[in-house]
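EI: anyone free to look at a 91-residue chain?
SC: sure, send it
EI:
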Amino acid sequence: MSDLFNMMNLPSFGTLPKFLARKEAPETSKEAAEKVDTQTLERIVYEVIRSHPEGCISDQVLAQLHNLPYGSVTARYAALKRKKLIYTTDP
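SC: here you go
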């Protein structure tokens, strides 16, 4: 299925759990990382950012996703930037 999406040039969402917890983190942190649905969260955050063609700031994204915890939203920015799906500008 992911091959089909890649052929269509659609974004690839999701981050492996091993990248969500430090190597020396307690086992409970690693277990929690396994339970995070990064694929869905990244897609949701990406869609909100994309809905602002003129650009947006984090406060606007957070306002639209007020039902999600702050950390669940802001933690997705790094993955989306790493995948070159979003970018930041300096003032």
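EI: The chain has one domain: 1-14+37-91.
SC: 👍
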